[in-house]
Amino acid sequence: MTAMLTMPRARLRGAVAAGAMCLALLGAPAAFADIPASPRADQNAMILAARQDPGTLDYVISNLTAVRLWIPANVVEPLVVFNEDGSVEPGVAESWEIGDDGLTYTFHIREARFSNGDPVTAGDVVFSLNEMKNSPVVDNAAAFTAVESIEATDERTVTVTLSRPSQAFWHGMGGMSGLVQPESAAGDRALNPIGSGPYRLVEYVSNSHMRFGPNPEYWGDAPAVGDVTVRIITDGTAGLNAMEAGDIDASPINTIDLWEQIVDRGLDAMATLETFPQAGEPTYAILNQKLDPGLRQAIAMTLDRQSFNDAFGAAWGAENTCTFALPHQSWYAPESPETCPWPFDFDEAMRLVQENGYGDIDLEYASLSDVPDLSLPADIMIPMMEAAGFTVTRNAMDLARYSQLVFQGRPPQFDVTIMAGDANPNQWVCTDESMAGWSTYCSPAYAEAMARADQATTTEDYDAAMLDAAAVLREDAVIVPLLAKLAVGLYHHDLQGFAHPRVGVAIEFANFHWQ
C-alpha cells in the first residue's frame, strides 16, 4: 500500500485508468444481489451494529460516540430541537421566550412523564442543566460559560439568565447540554439512563448489546419500530459480514478504514448507503505552535489532500478542505485557491526548506499505530515531508501511550501529529499560553473572533465572526485541515426513514419504518 501511495499522482491515475480499460474489455462484473429480506420486518423490530462498547451510558461524563449515538434523542430529550433547516421545535420545553437583550431565556415545560413514571418538573430541568454545566466533558459544559443563574420560577417554568448573549447556550439547549433527566434516577444513569423520549432502555449487556423498547409514557406518537437492538460488533469486517448475511439491518457508522471494503464488496449497492456530516469528522494535521510560522507553512505545502482522499478508496465519504469544519456548518468551504493560503506546492516547500535551513531541525512526528484511519495518513505525510527535505523522526505508539504523550501533554510533547475528531472550533480557544496543548491554540485573534461569534445576536453576525475565526486558523497553519469526512451508514433497502441527526450525532430510531 505504501509503495503505491508514493507513486507520482499522474502515474497512479494512469494505472487506475488502465485498470478500468481492462475491466471494460473483460466485461463488467455481475450486479450484486440485495441483502436478504429481514425477518425482523414482520416483527416490528430492527438490529443495528455498533463498533464500540460504551463502557458507561453516563452521557454527562462520557463523550464517546458509542453513547451519543443511541441515548440522546431516543431515551433522553433536550429542551428544544434544532432542525437541519435552522428551525426550532419543542422538546421537553413546549414553548419558550428569549429576552430582547438575549440575556433571559424562559422555558415552559410540557406536561409529560419520564419512562419510570415520574412527572417531568421544572426542578428536574434545573438539575439536568446544572449537571451539564458541571460536566467534565468540555463540549457539555461549554454552553454554560455565560450562564449566571438557572432557576425554577414555578412548577412548570425555568428561567436562565446570562451575563451576555451566547449562541453556544441557545444551541446547546438543542444538543447534549440541554438533555433532561429525572433527578431521582440520576444515580443509576451509568447503566440505566431515564428520559422522556420515545424509547426506554430495556437492557444493556456490556460488550454484547443494548436493547430499546417503546416508552409507554411518551408524550408523542408511538414509534413504528418498537424493538430495537444495538449489537456491539467491534471488528469492522465482522460487522460488514453480518450486514451482507442479513443478520443485522443497519450499520449506521462505518469508519473510514472500511470504506474501500464497502465498495470492493459491493455493499454500497446491496444496501442503502447514507452519508451525512453531523457524525463526521475532520482529519487534520497539528503542528506545534512553538515551531517557526514559516516552517509550519512549508510543512502545510507538502500536504496533497487528494492523496489522502485517494488512500481511503471512497470519494463519496470525504471532501478535501482547508477549513476546520464539516459541510453542514455555515463557515465550511471545500478546498479551493480562495480557502487554502498554503496549498499543496511541493516545489515551493522544497525551496523554503533549502533557503531557511528547515531540514536541519529534527522534527518528532507522533503517530498512532493502532488506529488505521490515522496511521494511514501518517504513512502518506511523513514520506512527503522527508522528500521535501525535512528531517522527521516517527514516534509510533499505541492509543494508551499517545493519550499520555499527546492528549495530556502540557505543553505539547510533539512537533507534528495527525488527528480526527469533533468539528467543534471552540476546542482550540486558548487565552492562557501555559494551558497550550494538542487541543488548544493560544491565538488572541482566534479567541477574539470566537468570542465575537458566541455573543452575536444575529445569524449574519455569527456567520461573519465564524468565517473570521476560520481564516485565522487557516492562515496560522497550526491546525491544518485535510479532509472533511462524512459519517457513512449502511441500511437494509427495506428499512426506510433515515434522517440526519438533530441532537448531536444521535441516530433517531423513531424515524424508521419497514417498507
Short description:
By secondary structure, the chain is α+β, with helices and mostly antiparallel strands. It has 16 helices and 19 strands. Among the domains are: 77-183, Dipeptide-binding Protein, domain 1, CATH 3.90.76; 280-486, Dipeptide-binding Protein, Domain 3 (Dipeptide-binding Protein, domain 3).
How would you describe this protein?
With 515 residues, the protein is an alpha+beta fold. Among the domains are: 77-183, Alpha-Beta Complex (Dipeptide-binding Protein, domain 1); 280-486, Dipeptide-binding Protein, Domain 3 (Dipeptide-binding Protein, domain 3, Roll). It has 16 helices and 19 strands. Helix 10 packs antiparallel against helix 12 and helix 15 (444-454) packs antiparallel against helix 16.
Features:
515 residues; 16 helices; 22% strand; Dipeptide-binding Protein, domain 1; disordered N terminus; 19 strands; globular; seven-stranded mixed sheet; Dipeptide-binding Protein, domain 3; alpha+beta
Rg calculated over all Cα atoms: 24 Å
Shape: globular
Share of β-strand residues: 15-25%
Write the CATH architecture name of the domain at 280-486: Roll
| C-alpha termini separation | 42 Å
CATH class of the domain at 280-486: Alpha Beta
> Counting H and I runs of at least 4 residues, what is the number of helices?
16
Write out the CATH superfamily name of the domain at 280-486: Dipeptide-binding Protein, Domain 3
In round numbers, the mean pLDDT is 91
Structural class: alpha+beta
The profile of the biggest β sheet is:
7 strands, mixed
Number of strands: 19
* Parts with pLDDT < 50 across at least 5 consecutive residues: 1-30
Q: Considering DSSP H and I runs of 4 or more, what fraction of the residues is helical?
A: 25-40%
CATH topology of the domain at 280-486: Dipeptide-binding Protein, domain 3
